[in-house]
Design a protein that fits this description.
Number of strands: 8
Largest sheet: 4 strands, mixed
Number of helices: 12
CATH superfamily of one domain: TonB
CATH architecture of one domain: 2-Layer Sandwich
Distance between the termini: 57 Å
CATH topology of one domain: TolA/TonB C-terminal domain
Strand content: 5-15%
CATH class of one domain: Alpha Beta
Order of helices and strands: HHHHHHHHHHEEHEEHEEEE
Radius of gyration: 24 Å
Helix content: 55-70%
Length: 323
């Protein structure tokens, strides 16, 4: 994803030095020697700024390289700062070639994720929307490449409790992945679970289930393209008994006052370490949903081993509320 510098029409000593150093940067990056690559990449940025100015496109390329190396090294704050500068420069250029537009999409997604981690959801949402639009233009509306940005965009809508937009966006992710990947692929199952979850929130689960059954029927064979995108997802049924620690949900005061009771089923996905990475109530009294989901996220499970390797598992946790 780094930029290699071509030869300029008018070579200067600074141009030659920047090109030479950038070759070294790319070599160190490929060797995953990020610590040594960073100071060299910083020199390249400085040389470009001195020779061409802070807003020149070649300065933007140098900032991109530095930002992605810092990101790979775990220096998120510095990476975000430099990638944001590069994004501004790339967006101002009106004749970006395809490779540069792909790099811009990747920068938008990377910075959006850092904003997402810092719970700056509105700023993250803006960049994910731009990244998704750019991916659509580059790869097509039904391309797998568009789904990563859309998936995270849907997650933000869900966190903001904009369930209508979350359902709409998860549906699109699910439709694309279900048509492109094997039915048992983790990415398909995850998108399906999230889409169905939001449909329950919006009282449109019948429509969602109809779509799911239709797509499953059309993807009932193994003719789908084989990918290395992710392993398959194992289904585990009711998983209460597999918990090493099953957190007990509090009884919400509003639910208690309304005498809301009964069983709540929470669709959950457990990662390879036994940690819940997705939990969504899919049946029961809605006043009990949030408490049930929070309890699920606090629970831990024994890792599931398949062919000697830990795998992700999806299942249902059942909570019973008695006034």
């Amino acid at each position: 994803m780094l930029c290699a510098f071509g030869s300029a029409n008018a070579q200067t000593s600074q141009t030659d030095e920047a090109t030479r150093l950038n070759t070294e940067v790319i070599k160190l990056f490929k060797e995953k020697n990020y610590k040594d690559a960073i100071p060299v990449a910083e020199k390249v940025v400085k040389l470009r700024e001195q020779e061409l100015g802070a807003n020149h496109f070649k300065t933007g390329e140098a900032l991109l390289n530095l930002g992605f190396i810092q990101s790979a090294n775990g220096d998120k704050d510095e990476a975000q700062k430099n990638l944001e500068k590069a994004i501004v420069i790339y967006q101002e250029k009106t004749d970006l070639d395809r490779d540069s537009r792909i790099k811009l999409a990747h920068m938008l997604e990377t910075v959006a994720f850092y904003r997402y981690e810092n719970r700056k959801f509105e700023k993250a949402k803006d960049f994910y929307q731009k990244a998704a639009e750019l991916r659509e233009k580059l790869h097509g509306q039904d391309a797998l490449e568009t789904t990563s940005a859309l998936w995270l965009l849907a997650s933000i809508y869900q966190l903001q409790k904009d369930y209508k937009m979350a359902e709409k966006t998860y549906r699109r992710v699910y439709e694309i992945r279900a048509k492109k990947l094997e039915r048992s692929d983790w990415n398909v199952q995850d998108a399906q679970n999230r889409y169905y979850c939001m449909s329950v929130r919006n009282d449109s689960s019948d429509e969602a289930m109809s779509l799911i059954k239709s797509l499953q029927a059309n993807n009932s064979n193994t003719d789908q393209p084989q990918t290395n995108l992710s392993p398959k997802l194992i289904r585990g049924g009711v998983i209460n008994g597999k918990a090493t620690y099953l957190a007990k949900p509090p009884y919400p005061q509003e639910a208690r006052s309304s005498r809301a009771e009964g069983a709540v089923k929470v669709q959950a996905t457990i990662d390879e370490q036994g940690k819940i990475i997705f939990a969504c109530a899919i049946s029961g009294n809605k006043l009990l949903y949030e408490a049930s989901e929070l309890a699920a996220y606090q629970s831990t499970f024994s890792p599931t081993i398949l062919s000697g390797k830990p795998v992700k598992v999806t299942g249902v946790i059942v909570y019973n509320f008695v006034p």
